[in-house]
Amino acid sequence: MKFKELMSLEYCERTGKIPIDILIANNINAPSEVLEEVYSSHGRKDDFQFQYGEIELNDIKWQRISINGLEIIKCEYFQRFGNWIESVEARLKAWDEKSWDCIDTRKNIVLHWQNEKTWLTSPFFINSSLIQNTNNLHLVEGHTRLGILKGLITRNIIPADSKHLIWHGDN
Question: Is 78 helix (H, G, I), strand (E, B) or coil?
């Protein structure tokens, strides 16, 4: 099934999400985190359909990998989300006044970054060769997490060679 075919599946009108059991019933093979965060939550969104519509879902092999922060922040992403990533990164300008509290309003997120120096939930990336001719890391979901990481590394709050777990899809 191609990503664009997610549009034909049953979904919740209130949330716009495709139920996980519908994805499973349609033989979409992916880790539960990918099913939930990417296919269920974003499968019907225009921006995602525009970017990933032609990808054959079951050709993607997903795995969690550890990768260094500098490689992550150099990733490609859909430019329509660039302003959001930059605005999240700009939160770190308040570091001197607020310390870790400047990164987010959700206390569990702030505490996790403060204690672990990484995200609470791994973001989702694919090899960009799945959508274009380059062979780079491409962010699918986790734009806020990327903005926070960029700000922390750029301000030297955490080292550029720090390791972070990501979901990575490749064929």
Answer: coil
